[in-house]
Design goal:
Elements lengths: L1 H25 L2 E6 L3 E5 L6 E4 L5 E6 L3 E6 L3 E8 L5 E10 L6 E6 L2 E7 L3 E4 L6 H19 L3 H5 L4
């Protein structure tokens, strides 16, 4: 009779372990990243491959010393998986990219059209996903013209159309 009680205890322990442990092992850590910002993450040893579920949401750049720079590219969530040479999963992490938090970003609505400003300390135009196409395009064009002028020593500024 004692053997039966011990068997039941072992079986009950195995059932409880099967129910509880998968929840513990399956819980992937979450990394929160702000859109257009970068965050650092340490990789486990012996990583040979990194997979990003949706590179339109987050991008990674591998650095020396086992560091990865994760940059928020678009709103949403994706995942990052680190594999060893044999294809075994060494790490899996959820990455959630959200908009800027805090008081420095101001969104102005003109009907359904949205414009975003960065107000640190003065308000300046900035583009963000979700801004109206006209506003986004104008700021992008100005930024590209400025960057072209800077990289060409000012000669591109003369070719840029005046607005």
């Amino acid at each position: 009779m004692k053997a039966t009680r011990a068997s039941r205890t072992i079986v009950l322990g195995l059932i409880l372990s099967a129910l509880i442990l998968p929840g513990v092992g399956a819980a992937a850590e979450t990394m929160d990243v702000t859109l257009d910002q970068a965050a650092l993450m340490k990789l486990p040893d012996k990583v040979s491959t990194i997979v990003v579920g949706n590179p339109m949401i987050a991008d990674v750049a591998i650095q020396s010393g086992g560091l990865v720079v994760v940059t928020g590219k678009g709103f949403g969530s994706t995942n990052l998986i680190a594999l060893d040479r044999a294809g075994a999963v060494l790490m899996e992490r959820s990455i959630v990219v959200s908009g800027p938090r805090g008081r420095d970003a101001v969104q102005v609505y003109r009907g359904v059209q949205r414009e975003t400003y960065s107000c640190t300390p003065n308000c300046e135009r900035r583009i963000s996903l979700g801004d109206s196409a006209e506003y986004f395009g104008a700021i992008t064009q100005q930024t590209e013209a400025r960057n072209s002028a800077a990289s060409s020593g000012g000669t591109a500024a003369a070719k840029a159309p005046a607005r």
